[in-house]
Design a protein that fits this description.
alpha/beta; Spore Coat Polysaccharide Biosynthesis Protein SpsA, Chain A; 12 helices; 2 domains; single chain; two-stranded antiparallel sheet; ten-stranded mixed beta sheet
Length: 304
């Protein structure tokens, strides 16, 4: 029996989770499914395969679901899988990479419809400048700018096993002892976005590393969870968690620059949205985003 367990997190994933669980069963590893949506089809697919299911009546968020799943298992290594990720190879090489006590976790190659998901499966930890350029639309208008290129690891040699800063939690094996030392994933990053970035940043601060193992491959359809969240809510969640990440990991001066960028970017997106949609809906959405950033600015002022 392998020395790892598998946690599959789903949210309205009944249409995708079946193939994922079939591949999980092939590993022979203990596994648990955590469903944040009480989806009847997801329940049926899980129980039909004889796997334990943690069914949350409300969406507790990805981070809390990960913590629930890990607590339900006992293995020293845990593979985190999104419900729309299907293993294409064995995962023993990930476990081997995690044998080093200095290694917090390991990930492999995620393949989507367009090939390897560069820019998503591995990134560097975001700097204030990288986040600033994102919210100010610079990365959309000039995606090949050096800061964005570096942040999204577009120049990485993906054929080589190596240390990386931030593998995506959609397909990530982690050591239980590191998870315990860090107090698990921060469930304050609700319902998703930046919880895995925060986990990697905290682990690296304690001297741990993460490994990328290209020979371990999984297919990732992607986007089914995000697509179930209304656009307005997506914007509020993403910006809110970005500001939370900045508050946890950046100096007050750097955090202030991110807050200013969010406020400025909100106005820009508001104007562009009105022009494109001929609607005042963007005023409501990005007005709320600007208000969130304003509250962060007030908090920062109180720290001086």
């Amino acid at each position: 029996m392998p020395g790892y367990g598998i946690v599959v997190v789903g949210f309205g994933s009944g249409g995708e989770i079946g193939p994922c669980l079939d591949r999980v069963l092939e590993t022979g590893a203990p596994a648990v499914v955590v469903d944040n949506s009480a989806d009847p089809r997801s329940r049926e697919e899980t129980l039909r395969r004889g796997l334990p299911l943690i069914e949350n009546p409300a969406n507790l968020g990805f981070a809390a679901a990960v913590n629930q799943g890990i607590e339900a298992l006992r293995e020293p290594l845990i593979l985190l899988l999104n419900a729309d990720v299907y293993l294409e190879t064995g995962i023993d090489l990930l476990a081997a990479a995690c044998e080093n006590p200095a290694t917090a976790g390991a990930s492999g190659t995620l393949v989507g419809p367009g090939g390897a998901q560069r820019g998503f499966m591995v990134r560097r930890l975001p700097t204030p400048l990288a986040l600033g350029l994102e919210v100010l639309l610079v990365n959309r208008l000039w995606p090949g700018n050096p800061v964005n290129w570096h942040y999204r690891c577009m120049g990485l040699d993906y054929a080589r096993s190596q240390d990386v800063e931030q593998p995506a939690a959609a397909f990530l094996m982690i050591r239980r002892d590191v998870w315990s030392r860090l107090g698990g994933f921060d469930a304050g990053f609700w319902p998703l976005w930046f919880e895995d970035v925060d986990f990697c940043a905290r682990a690296r601060r304690l001297g741990y590393r993460f490994r990328f193992v290209p020979g371990v491959v999984a297919k990732h359809t992607g986007g089914h969870t995000v697509g179930r969240i209304p656009l307005e809510q997506r914007q509020l969640y993403w910006y809110g968690n970005l500001l939370r990440y900045a508050a946890k990991h950046f100096s007050n001066r750097a955090r202030a620059l991110v807050v200013l960028a969010v406020m400025t970017g909100s106005v820009m997106r508001m104007v562009m949205g009105i022009a494109r949609q001929w609607s005042l809906a963007p005023v409501v959405v990005f007005g709320k985003v600007a208000a969130m950033a304003g509250r962060e600015a007030v908090r920062l002022a109180g720290l001086r």
